[in-house]
Every structure is written in structure tokens, then in C-alpha cells.
Design a protein that fits this description.
By secondary structure, the chain is of the alpha+beta class. It contains two helices and five strands. The protein has helices at 5-20, 84-92, and strands at residues 27-30, 42-47, 57-69, 97-103, 109-115. Strands 1-2-3-4-5 form a five-stranded mixed sheet. A hairpin with a 5-residue loop joins strand 4 (97-103) and strand 5 (109-115). The model has no long low-confidence stretch (mean pLDDT 93).
Length: 116
């Protein structure tokens, strides 16, 4: 069964949100679904503790989410091609957290990270 692009995107963002909502994980994702932003899909707020108060905010990290459907999850390092324009935008914006999310047709997912 092949997933639609919308399903892949929703599953990818959902996988990131699920990880961020785990106990002991002090992250708050702000990644809209259906957003077609240029080079950036949203951000993740990083806190020092679970209070989510302004005093505990360590920073806000811009993110780019790339969801892709696979039959089997990759093992080890996962590569993903981007055009040079994205790399220029990341450089000019002090970087980005690239999250490549592999999703299977059954909804299972695996997240790969890279910082540019």
C-alpha cells in the first residue's frame, strides 16, 4: 500500500511530536502540517526542565522535516539529498536540525537526525 504525500508528512511530524512528548524529554515542537515553508518547516523549543516556563527556555531550534516512505528501515547512517539553495539558507540562518523520518505503510516510523 502506498501512502499519499499528506499521510507521509502527517506521520513524519507525528513521529517527532511523539518523541518530544515522552516523559523526561524537554522539547516542544512547533511543526505545522501542510506547511510549505522555504527550507524550514518549523521549530523545536528546548527547555532545561519540564516546567516549560520562559525562565527554563534554552533556545529554539529551526527544523526541516523530510518524510519518506520505505518498505524497510535503513540501518546506520541515512543520507538525504537537498539542493544547494537549502544549504545556503541554513548557513545564512545559523543552521537547522534536519529530521528525516522514514515511514512504513503500516504507520511505523524511524527518525534520523542531522544538524547543518
Amino acid at each position: 500500500m502506498t501512502l499519499s504525500n499528506g499521510q507521509i508528512e502527517r506521520l513524519a511530524v507525528g513521529a517527532i511530536t511523539n518523541v518530544a512528548n515522552q516523559p523526561g524529554c524537554f522539547l516542544v515542537p512547533n511543526i505545522p502540517v501542510g506547511d510549505k515553508g522555504i527550507s524550514f518547516d518549523g521549530n523545536i523549543s528546548v527547555f532545561i526542565d519540564g516546567s516549560e516556563k520562559k525562565e527554563s527556555l534554552l533556545g529554539i531550534v529551526p527544523v526541516q522535516v523530510k518524510g519518506t516512505e520505505v518498505a524497510h528501515f535503513h540501518k546506520g547512517v541515512r543520507s538525504f539529498s537537498l539542493d544547494m539553495g537549502h544549504y545556503r539558507n541554513y548557513l545564512n540562518s545559523d543552521g537547522v536540525l534536519l529530521l528525516v523520518v522514514e515511514v512504513k505503510s503500516d504507520g511505523d516510523s524511524k527518525i534520523f537526525t542531522s544538524r547543518y
